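Let's do one together. I've listed all components of the complex below, 548 residues spread over two lines.
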Amino acid sequence: MKKLDVNLHKGDMLQGKWNGRTYTIIRELGSGACGTVYLCKDSQGEKYALKIGGDSSRVMLEVNMLKKFSKVQGVKLGPSFVDVDDWEVRGKGVYPFYVMEYVEGKSVREFMRGRTKDWIGICALQLLTDLDHLHRAGYVFGDLKTDNLLVEKARIRWIDVGGVTPIGRAIKEYTEFYDRGYWGRGSRKADAAYDLFAVTMIMMEMVYPKRFSKGTDPVKVLESKLHAAIPLKPYRSVILGIWKGRYSSAGEVTRDLKRVLMHPGRSGSSRRRGKRMASETSEVLAFSCFVMAFFGVSIFSFWM
Amino acid sequence: MKPGRLKQILLLTDGCSNHGEDPIAVAALARNQGVTVNVIGVLDDRQNEKPQGLEEVEAIAEAGGGVSQIVYQKSLSQTVQMVTRQAMTQTIQGVVNKELQEILGKDQTIEELPPEKRGEVVEVVEDLGESCDLEVLVLVDTSASMHHKLPTVKEALYDLSLSLNARTGANEFSVHVFPDSKRAIRRMIDWTPELSEINSVFHKLSSGGYTPTGPALKEALYAFAAKPVYDRQDGVDPYEETGR
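Okay, and this is what the predicted structure of the assembly comes out as:
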């Protein structure tokens, strides 16, 4: 597994070995364990994002995913794929890279600054809509986290689809805070619910930007953090429902979340709780009637 | 193509070997026998600099055809699963490269294919990594300086089994510790598909003042060789031959 470190600067030019297209670096957009993303322009002056560095087989896997998921069922999911090639540097080696659409947007945290709590639900709704399309195509996002998202014109966009995994397979890449396995809430097998869990953690992160770790009792830590988060109060029952595995598709969550957003103050949780309490009361009533009747009969028979 | 079974030794240590034969030589021997050796050097969360002797970590993994990483305790869980997976991919890539060379000529490797073809090969490697069977012998250094890191190690190993058991392929783990007063290593958990019993391990461990990494690795290699080979796949899974 070769790991190639590249450090490019403004004005550097790359030419692909196979397709021959040339790109000029404008500036760095971000870097991580699996390479660096640069803003660049092609010979026509069109702006793109270019990813280079990191392990070469990973680069290819990402390209495969981009090709598959820039569009699913006519819906734009990830950034559009533009080009993949090798950059040959004499005496140094070959650096595989790929070029994709440049998504110009704000980070989720930046976007949320100064916005009302309604936006937590709206962002979640946007994520769920895209996830629903992906899940229907037979895949899960996998490493769903704020680092892999940007907000472009008040719409959440995915910028890194490297963790996309076919349903039924093992999640290869995850980030502990968003991973249900880490929180003791299930396996790392790719299913729709795996992504749903990550969505709840993104909602939590909007309230706790510094995030938090699991401690000795992960399940308890998670629930107490949820209960302490006032902005999440309207969404509490939906979030808890996801944690308890009550939802198996993004569509079901969308339905319940929409209900919360359409009827502020009359959230699904309070209504449902009300119903449950009512049915409990009737059960208790029925039971006590039965007990009293039984006693009545036994006292009556004792007297006889 | 059938991936068969991948065999790995995962060594968790925090220092340099100082007793017995050269662990690098033993790792090379293991590689020769088809067993990959991965090494993780575990640092204290408070430690600022890399302590002396940890270069050995890289050298052992390199000789053993595996992956090495030096990490702080807090990122141990993620590292353990990443290293194991990387090593699997690396081994499979090695096999695929060999096949490619047989078909396309001596110097042909995955890296030299045009991007489209490379993309297809990488997909095949992924499929094999998902479906192959895996045996991991975990070897934990329990010398004095490792003692307070053992709860983290335990957690990381449990997490490893969670990650790998999400795969389609079968897994088997076994956990050994060293040094031991009687033999080079002591078996704590026999071959098992899940590491859920790991919580009961690591109690009452005697700590030695020396770190016989070489002899421990050798003993681990013997443990692999002594493993009963009952091919569970035969007759149980009729689809095995046709591939998945």
